[in-house]
């Protein structure tokens, strides 16, 4: 409006008759501005604003942040909310526009998706208020500075929590597992009912009771399972804003929860130049808290990983046969062959699952139709790298080492499936 008045005043030099009309208009605008200021500033505290945050953020997930505004004015207002969100998100033009009725309150929210663990500092909550006249805005500042820690994905943990309660996990994308044979833990002898496995019939009990009796088994408990996280430079590669290391950390948290729910012992440790961040495998009430805090505080400089040190520490610290889920990454067969002697040595005394990643960017190149010679070369190179990943799987299988080749976003799902499959097959 002010810009229009300036233009009209410039035109008044050409058309002098406009000048008195514009003067009157300017006086009217000034009156409305004074009235608007008086209306907004007459009430000392016209609104109240509160930012409602969770106690901690879940890494890699959408986290809901709520804003609660109370309007104490006797007329409807328009608000522009500018929240000083943490610097990690790099959102410099963040604002939300809302309208509130007279003497009412409103709760609305927005979502933040962090991609790094650590501390996230929120600044002040700024709310600009305008009356129905709309010529003046009054700024309210609510000094709501707050630090919220970002932990590994506990939302993902809850999402896959159901997997620990059933051996038939076909729902929600979890693969159904074919059970093979029996585990070794005997539970009880019970009456035979239709549908029971006739291979488990107890003939001595049947003869004594003169009716069919059957042995009932349960999954063997207290198996020791360690999640081993490679903190080397190969885990620094980012996908969808998150590093492979953070994908592995999120998966470790969810898988450890399922392991404990299955009555096994869950532990973790990491390695690069040396082994660290150790949580000894136990089955206790506080184990998940220990694991979560350790994963939250896990830091790395992404050095070259020393697999010989990993093997030596496992041999020294964990003499009993255990299941190891190793999160790492191999891009080429040569990269695997350099570490294969140590993986074979670990697999000799323990059950080893090597988890590594598909490069989803290569999939896009392969699926895209090549139109130039450069694109043809890129496509052939991408196909070569993808084929090497399959060769790595076959090479590991040759030496009795289990493996999971997965997209980063499906890491947790595929790892839980593999653990449940191996438990159902009674592999130890």
Structure in a nutshell:
The chain is of the alpha/beta class. The chain has eleven helices and 20 strands.
Given as residue ranges, the uncertain stretches (5+ residues, pLDDT < 50) are 167-173, 176-183
Number of helices: 11
Structural class: alpha/beta
Q: What is the CATH superfamily label of the largest domain? A: von Willebrand factor, type A domain
CATH level-3 fold name of the largest domain: Rossmann fold
Largest sheet: 6 strands, mixed
Quaternary arrangement of the chains shown? single chain
Major sheet: arrangement of strands: 17-16-13-18-19-20
In one word, what is the shape? elongated
Kindly describe this structure.
This protein has four domains: 2-32, no CATH class; 49-151, Immunoglobulin-like (Sandwich); 154-179 and 220-424, von Willebrand factor, type A domain (Rossmann fold); 185-218, no CATH class. The chain has a six-stranded mixed beta sheet, with helices on both faces. Strands 5-4-8-9 form a four-stranded antiparallel beta sheet, covered by helices on one side. The protein has a three-stranded antiparallel beta sheet with strand order 1-3-6, with no helix packed on it. With 428 residues, the protein is of the alpha/beta class. It starts with a helix and ends with a helix. Helix 1 runs antiparallel to helix 2 (18-41), helix 5 (244-261) packs antiparallel against helix 6 (287-296) and helix 7 runs parallel beside helix 8 (333-349). 36% of the residues lie in helices and 27% in strands. It is elongated, with a radius of gyration of 32 Å.
């Amino acid at each position: 409006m002010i810009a229009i008045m300036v233009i009209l005043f410039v035109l008044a030099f050409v058309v002098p008759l406009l000048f008195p009309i514009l003067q009157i208009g300017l006086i009217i605008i000034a009156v409305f501005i004074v009235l608007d200021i008086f209306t907004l500033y007459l009430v000392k505290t016209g609104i109240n604003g509160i930012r409602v945050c969770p106690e901690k953020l879940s890494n890699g997930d959408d986290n809901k942040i709520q804003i609660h505004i109370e309007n104490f004015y006797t007329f409807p207002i328009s608000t522009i909310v500018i929240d000083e969100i943490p610097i990690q998100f790099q959102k410099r033009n963040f604002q939300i526009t809302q309208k509130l009725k007279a003497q009412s309150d409103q709760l609305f929210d927005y979502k933040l998706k962090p991609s790094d663990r650590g501390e996230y500092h929120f600044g002040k909550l700024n709310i600009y208020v305008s009356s129905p006249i709309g010529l003046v805005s009054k700024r309210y500042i609510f000094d709501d500075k707050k630090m919220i820690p970002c932990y590994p994905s506990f939302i993902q943990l809850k999402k896959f929590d159901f997997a620990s309660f059933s051996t038939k996990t076909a729902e929600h994308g979890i693969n159904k597992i074919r059970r093979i044979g029996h585990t070794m833990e005997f539970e009880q002898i019970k009456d035979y009912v239709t549908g029971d496995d006739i291979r488990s019939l107890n003939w001595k009990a049947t003869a004594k009771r003169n009716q069919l009796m059957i042995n009932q088994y349960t999954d063997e408990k207290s198996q020791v399972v360690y999640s081993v996280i490679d903190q080397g430079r190969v885990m620094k590669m980012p996908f969808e804003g998150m590093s492979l290391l953070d994908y592995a950390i999120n998966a470790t948290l969810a898988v450890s929860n399922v392991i404990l729910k299955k009555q096994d012992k869950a532990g973790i440790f990491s390695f690069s130049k040396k082994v660290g961040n150790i949580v000894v495998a136990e089955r206790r009430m506080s184990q998940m808290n220990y694991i979560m805090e350790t994963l939250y505080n896990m830091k790395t400089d992404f050095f070259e990983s020393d697999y010989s040190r990993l093997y030596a520490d496992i041999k020294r610290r964990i003499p009993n046969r255990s299941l190891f889920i190793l999160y790492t990454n191999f891009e080429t067969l040569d990269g695997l062959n350099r570490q294969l002697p140590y993986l074979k040595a670990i697999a000799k005394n323990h059950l080893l699952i090597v988890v590594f990643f598909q490069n989803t960017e290569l999939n896009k190149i392969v699926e895209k139709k090549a139109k130039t010679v450069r694109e043809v070369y890129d496509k052939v190179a991408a196909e070569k790298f993808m084929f090497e990943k399959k060769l790595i799987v076959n090479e590991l299988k040759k030496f009795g080492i289990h493996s999971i080749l997965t997209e980063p976003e499906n890491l947790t799902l595929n790892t839980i499936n593999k653990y449940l499959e191996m438990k159902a097959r009674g592999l130890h």
